[in-house]
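Form 12-C: Joint structure prediction
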Amino acid sequence: MSDHPFIISRRAALAGAAALASTGTAAAAPGPNDEAQLYELAKAEGKIVWYEAAPLEAMQNFVVRFETKYPGVKVQLMRTSGPQQYQRFLQETEAGQHIADLLLLSDQPLTHDLVEKKMLASWRVPTFDRVPESFRIGDFAYAPYTTDMAIVYNSNRVTEDEAKLLGSGWKSVIDPVFKNRFAIVKRKCGACYAPIQMFLSPKMEKEYGLPFLRAIAAQRPRVYSDNPIALDRIIAGERDFVFWLWEGVALTKWQEGAPVRWVRPSPTPLFGNSWQAVSANAPHPNAARLFQNWVMSEEGAKGLQLDYGGMTTLIGYPDQRPITNEAWWKPITEVYSVDWDNWAKNYESDMTAWQKIEDTARG
Amino acid sequence: MTRALGRLLVLLLAVLVLVVCVVPLAQTINTAFYAETAYGLSTARSVAALLTVYTTGEYLGDLVEALILSVIVTILSLSLSVTMAFIMARARLRLAGLLDILIIAPMFLSPFTGLIAWIVLASEETGFVNMAWRGVFGDGDALVNIWSYTGVVWVMALFFTPFAYLFTVNPLRSMDASLEEAARTAGASPLRSILHITLPMMVPAIFGAGMLIFVLAAEMYTIPGIIGATAGFTTLPYQIYLDTTVSPVHLARAASGGTILLWVTLVGIMIQRRVTRRSERYVTIGGKGHRSRPIDLGSWRWAAYGLTWGYIICSVLLPMGALLVYSLMKYSSGRLGADVFSLVHYRNLFSLQATREALGNTLLLGILSGTICAALGTLISFLELRTKGLLIIAVAFLAVLPVAVPGLVYGIGLSRTYLRTPLYGTIWVLLLAYIAKFLPYAIVVARTGIMQIGRELEESARTCGANPARVLARITLPLLKATLVSVLFFVMLMSIKELSASVLLYSERGPILSVLIWSYMDSGNFQFAAAIGVIQSVIMVALVLVTRLIFHVRIEGPLAR
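Section 2 - Result
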């Protein structure tokens, strides 16, 4: 397939090239630790196509780091939301249109499904043993950074005392002092679901459960259609805080100087929502594997921390984000571990129930 | 042109329409007949999705919401645009040329960048308008609130008005005023002559414009979706958007929802054909020369100025100003301090290769799709109205159908159609998508234009020995020049702004501006998206100026005067 957008590729040539590439890989595939050989082969391939679901600007900066370290290997980004990315990759693979080399796909169950369909390559990155088991799917996919749950607030509108109150526990949000002052998001997404699963989990259902969700709606929050809009409106000062987003997305805005801070009451869902994997039919298999190694390396972790603000999953790598030096910032003290079986089973029904409750927020 | 050549041409058009318009539409409908799994489409056939969509209150309720919203927006836009068109075509106003351009200027904004602008202007607490209001009158309730049903109607009506204006002002200007003048000579008041002479003659143009707005409003998911979630309503297109983009994806339900909108538009097309069945009734360009006499509005001219300038302020000056200010902000803020402003987004915009590539691709696609649709639309409509052959009537009917399906759903069909072809992943697939999506508009507008040309002009040429090709080239096309350029301009703008199908079909090898704006918005960088939106608007204005230079036509319509 030609790199040029105006030139129509020949399907036969594409299929042949892909077959040759995969045959070549099988015949003389370098191992995960053969970086020099991988780089040589990657340079010959020249580029990588990366389908990703993370914020575009952050990832554009992130790939510049890779391209600087490995001149001659260009990363072409294509941002598309998780479910759309999954559909697109699935359809393309089934049709023999092998375009994507790598995926950064939101939602663990979607990634798991691609593993089961044998569409992702097995690749044991050199840092494999440093990635906790819950942040990898075999050696097919890895979550390079964590996703959590945070109450994100406008620091010009929420006092320090109020911030302390919000940080003291999830139930603080139903304190009368916050009536009409915050926003919620009516959206089905992975990062949106983890907290719902936690509140409805058998362990916590008695303390929280549906009554807690109804109490949130009774606070008359402003409902927004999506997470980025909610964050933007909180920063503008339209409402005082959003219940809930995650640290990475707020940190990007904090780095730009926006008046935004966050608290993460206990227990906090901490899980892998973005999964990085190499396509089993990657047209540039060596470049893709080189990139995968780099993303999961300490350098990749540093890049993700600085460019996106995501906390690395790599065991033993220090949290170097400037945010950790802020007096108001507090690390997570107690983790809620997501139950993936329950996720696959109850995601849609739980989210639909929550959205129906959200609809009552408008009275 | 011999009869055989004519038949060959019709046959070629039939094949083209079949491949470009009908096959993707069939693929879209086909998608509705699959079962759904937890993650997408199954390979098994099922009518479960169709049953869910056609029989449950959820989807039917969303359909009703969409239809009600579209009707309200259409009535408002049409009232506003026809009134302004009449004022501009018949009254003597100062700075009329400038007003003409400014009235259609909202077309240079895509609806969702327009929405960003109005969120910045009219958010309850931090909107610039409300802050100014409170600055003058002290703390209190907001003057306007965009996060409401009224807000949705307001933004949509503002941005759809120029579409109707563009397609009603030309026929009004080219209309033979002798009948109106005869009525006035016979003692009728100006109002009576407008109501009994002008408006009835404008029926095809007004109905065509109304249909256009209704369809555009009925398929729109961005503005009703983003604001509707807050205001407490969901329209069918937004539900379709959620079904195609949000986990769990329900592609079969989305396609089924698309078929409902297809029925709605089919009914609209049939009504339009019935209304305009006797085309001779609507001839406004006859064989005799004519010149209309401007109406003296007297003291009503101040109301005319108030209406046009009020519209221009609300639809152009305020939103474009807000968008520019917003694109210069590092992050959203209700406070306009110096520390909030930066040129960082514009610096990044021009330094990114993807943005530069997107500029080139967007321009190329806009020009090509505009030119092709204008040519094909005119040809199909001309052959349909003048030959009345069964095949060309079928071609004209089938080519209009894709307009009925929301871009997102049609994108599913297009994607499935081209997935196994070498076109997939190139920008040419976007060109085909734009032709399929916008050819219906070209056909409808060209049809209206041709219907307004009296047959006696062409018949006179034929009597003098000219063949049909010569008649088309020497008589019909010159008379249609303004309409043709309007179509070219309209499709060009629509292509540059198109998002729904583009999101599903674009590839990393061919970035385009509308998808780039959406990607940045979806990533939470609204200011960067606004900066691209500003550049997108500048490109559209530049294209209009270039088109004007090339064709020596003021697209706003005065040519027909």
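Section 3 - Comments
Chain A touches chain B through 73 residues (CB under 8 Å). Chain A is about 40% helix and 15% strand.
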